[in-house]
Amino acid sequence: MNLDLPRTTTAGTCNPTIAQLEELNEMLNILVSGIETLTNDEQCLTHEALQIQITLSTLAAEQSKVKLSIEESNIFLEGVKHNQDLSSLQEKVDDLQFNAQSERLTSIYSPPFYSSPNGYKMRACLYLNGNGNACCIRMSLFFVLMRDLNDPIL
Known about the structure:
By secondary structure, the chain is an alpha+beta fold. It is 54% helix and 12% strand.
């Protein structure tokens, strides 16, 4: 926006009022160009803020997925950690055998695990004293498929 006033002067009229108006006109033009620059900067900053909000929401969703994955990994590692001590493992087997024969504990479930990084979520179910037709004859082992977030892509 340019506000140039017509500059008509006669040879005899160099009025200080006209000089003052010209100075004000120049100042006004400078202010108008400054306002245009600020408006453009505001539009750029608004666009950048919108992009940052979109990125932030995406990162928040990714963070929740990572937290869930870490929790599942920690649960799995806790299960593995407990099975590392051989003497406690032998005691567990003896206790489980006794409980299975006395029918106090008929089955044992493993912690959930995956067939691959994006694969099926499953767990093993062990019947120490058998199940169904094999009851009191042999051990029964089943794999139980579980619901998971990856099911729609499988």
